[in-house]
Amino acid sequence: MNGRGPSRRGLLAAAVLALTGGGVAETSALWRLSDGRDESTPEAGGRGPAGPPTPNPTPDYLAAARQKVAAYLEKVGNGRVTVAVKDRRSDVALTVGTTRFQTASIVKVDILAALLLRARQRNQEITDTDRRNAKKMITASDNVAATALYRRIGRKPGLTSANRTFGLKETTPDAQWGVTTTTAADQIRLLTSLTDEDGPLDEDSRSYLFDLMSHVEEGQDWGVPAAAGTGTTKVYVKNGWDTVTADGGLWQVNTIGRLVEPGHDWLVAVLSNHHRTQAAGIRMIEAVARYTLGELRKIPTAPTA
Q: What is the pTM of this model?
């Protein structure tokens, strides 16, 4: 010991650490910024270099939000629900849960994206029949239309190839498109690729796909839209739901989409299963979407142009 009492900065860091739940796994990430002082400059009394600067205690808002969302998901879903969110206008991104789920009808966005990619690679336009099927598949979740377009893209091999281009890592297409498996994180990768101005789809294709997602029929416009705020200006969604034989006939309910609002462009995916009814699944994923976006909207972000 050097005989000196604890410094004012040390006491402040300890106090804030206690308030933020010191001892949790992510405590080391709770401090980010330095106060800018040069601790190597001798202080009054002739002391020499004092080592590296001690960082100011700046809360890691994202780590705190992740912990709260994880606790909420465990409470409401008991491990049967996962969520991933990314804000395209900041570095705010969160994923809670790695479970793979059957896609049900959310894969229809992937199928349409693969069709548009195929046309671009061949320097072609999609046909009028393709457009009719795409509209029915996305806005009305028509399964016959989806099967027709799945054949058009080459079924499982065609979707697998397209997904490599889209950067997906955890999605496994199936001969039956509805039992394709995926993760919430991979659905965010897909949405990221499809919104990227420098991504694999051109501007016309991106606009076409998201326009369809903004005109989902009434009665199918649940899920992500429930998390819209008072300032939300654009809402895009595609939902998926089905019973799962391997889960005793219980319901799989998923939602993916996008919410645009001042300062934010949220990409959202909530996947879940083991519901006794579809309605119960819808209530859960909407609650998760609302809670997660509510926590992320609290995070201070840099102003955007």
A: 0.81
